[in-house]
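<amino_acid_chain>
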Amino acid sequence: MTLARRACFAAVTTAALIVTVAAGGHFVPVRNRGELVPAPVTAWPGGPIVRVSLPPAAAHAATAGRAASSIGSLGSLNWAGYAVSRSGLRFNSVQATFFVPYVTCSKALGQTLSSDWVGFDGFVGKPDSVEQGGIGADCSAAGKASYYAWWETYPEPEKKAALSVQAGDSVTATVSYDSADKDFRITLADHTRGGRYSVTRGCPAIKIDKRAVTCPRNSAEVISEAPATGTSAEKVVIAHLSDYDAVSFEGVAIADSSGQRGTLVSGHWSTTKIIQLRSSGAIVALPTPTQATTFDNYWLREN
């Protein structure tokens, strides 16, 4: 990767924009001055969720078609999907199967990026780590689509996996933790082509703001994300989100460190629906209500 590498951060306007790091660990958009977006100081790929308030229309969309339950909802500038968490709980595995989306590319839109993944961390409190594996579905400036598998232990940079994937392939992504070896295993399997890739890594030995990254495994997620390209540790250039139309996740399976197993909605943990928004509050990508182990993410508009 060059310095213009992928970084999963906030997408906040229709046009690409530069985001700079301000004191206190905030990214401040050059446009929309005065809007402070909590985010890590270091502009590496695969960053944690960037939260924003849900406006009334988005809040209504979050509950539409859903019976009253313990499922919460929040807005994000970079994530769409579901996260599970509970105070004091640690997760040991998360898995989902999905079809690689057919992205709609256009020279008029230029380069666009998208990622679909499962993983741990990046959601609770002020996170400084994410352990994840998934696929990228991008469009070049010439309007050509490209698809690839990747994995990451943020704040280390994203790495491409030696696994060939194409639009329409059925892929299972799994992230698990071995408490004896204290290692994360990230596995990607393409059922359509028969390929499989797996890698084992420990928590990165990296400090952020003089604090060692701990990889607490205090959340598990299934996400479609708007990535970006980083130009330095102080700036990221926010890219367009690829038009992926819809991504269907199924077979979502989660286990915690005590051996309890379930799916997104379970009595063992709390569930949060994450709606991707523009900074204006318009919905960019919307998850459907969960149906057993299944849900869809729908792309609605440019970010």
